[in-house]
Specification:
2 helices; 26 strands; mainly beta; 2 domains
């Protein structure tokens, strides 16, 4: 190769490299497009508006309504129960560059009519208990589907009765015909049968049988609660060392041919009625009492045992009389079902209390589904097992 040709080739390589670098610099300096948002968005009340952006992953986004920051995610999920117009601002910062984008979100009245109450029951599986097969009532030949249908009849709508979830882990899953928005303050109420007693030294105690509350937002819009959409409401006991995460208990179907092991108390018919064991190495029996003589094991479950799982909180019932005649269930501060009377603020739930499986708070736009399960594994003397009851639920934002 002669010198002249070599110099020309070297010049071309350097020139192309310079132009390429210069273009890269231009791209870095002009990462943000002129338009990111539409001028206007329209959405029904209680519906989630998703605004997706196609911005660099290194960009910092701040979504605001007036002076209030509502999200810092790449995409915005917006919902409102109010029929009004919202001025939306998106601030984007990347590589020292900042741009402001503006839009308007118009929330309009929905064409149909929503109910603030439960609209459907997806699943129901109680633990063993003195009200199992009674509330709701089991009749011969009932299947799991027909029991779920009975639970639906009991707690859907405004004119409800009640279902019992039995001992620890017994659960119900239900949903609404709209998304309950995650607003400032508490968002929905769960109804049970808790009540205050006349306790001289316990202002908020009586009959309280707390249930864990799980919530789910139907992100993929398939109309059903998927397993990866569930988050636990972190009630007042969630972060305490008296709470056990990932607790499980197995209940064994009783042998009908086994003779009862009657106790010394007037109310005990069989002290070794239904065997249970948990994943902490504990094992014992659930007692049968004189007040309920039906099977305490769900009769539509054909398996000889079944396992229920969840978060277990500390026992809350104690024998105030000291002689077994008067048991009192203390209420926890917040965040549980059947933990306070229906007219009490403590039966209202804030969606912002939701946490992921690692205990980290999550920001949900709202919820479509709720799961409730009994949170305590305790028997309170003649009162029987601590069992969460549910008699409905409703959206606090929909009047």
């Amino acid at each position: 190769m002669n010198k002249a040709f070599f110099k020309i080739a070297l010049f071309l390589i350097l020139f192309v490299g310079f132009v390429s670098c210069d273009k890269d610099n231009d791209n870095e300096e002009n990462l943000l497009p002129a338009e990111v948002l539409k001028e206007n968005y329209t959405i029904d009340r209680f519906k989630v508006l998703n605004i997706a952006t196609d911005l660099p992953s290194t960009a910092k986004l701040t979504w605001s309504i007036k002076d209030s920051i509502i999200s810092e995610n790449a995409d915005l999920d917006f919902i409102s129960p109010f029929q009004k117009s919202y001025p939306l601002t998106l601030k984007v910062e990347v590589n020292g560059e900042t741009k402001i984008y503006n839009a308007s979100i118009n929330v309009i009245k929905e064409t149909g009519t929503y109910s603030k109450y439960i609209s459907n029951v997806f699943d129901f599986r109680p633990a063993v208990g003195q009200f199992t097969n009674e509330i709701p009532l089991y009749t011969s030949g009932n299947t799991e589907a027909s029991i779920i249908s009975a639970a639906k009849k009991a707690i859907v709508g405004s004119n409800t009765t009640m279902i019992s979830l039995g001992g620890f882990g017994g659960y119900v899953v239900f949903g609404f015909d709209h998304t309950i928005p995650n607003m400032n303050g508490r968002d929905f109420k769960v109804l049970g049968n808790a009540f205050w007693g006349n306790e001289a030294n316990e202002a908020r105690a009586g009959s309280c049988e707390p249930g864990i509350i799980m919530v789910a937002y139907d992100k993929n819009k398939n109309g059903k609660p998927d397993e990866d959409e569930w988050y636990e409401i972190a009630g007042s006991e969630y972060f305490k060392n008296t709470t056990t995460k990932n607790y499980s208990i197995t209940y064994f179907k009783p042998d009908p041919n086994k003779l009862p092991a009657a106790g010394n108390e007037f109310w005990q018919v069989n002290t070794e009625y239904i065997k249970w064991q948990d994943n902490a190495g504990n094992s014992a029996y659930k007692s049968q009492n004189v007040f309920h003589d039906q099977s305490y094991y769900p009769l539509w479950i054909v398996d000889t045992s079944y396992t229920l799982k969840g978060t277990r909180i500390a026992d809350n019932f104690y024998d105030q009389s000291g002689e077994g005649s008067y048991w009192v269930g203390k209420s926890f501060e917040f965040g549980y079902a059947d933990n306070a009377p229906n007219n009490d603020e403590a039966s209202n739930i804030d969606i912002s209390w939701a946490v992921d499986k690692n205990g980290k708070y999550v920001k949900l736009p709202g919820i479509d589904f709720v799961k409730i399960y009994t949170a305590i594994n305790q028997e309170a003397g003649w009162l029987g097992e601590v069992s969460t009851e549910v008699s409905g639920a409703y959206d606090l934002h929909l009047n």
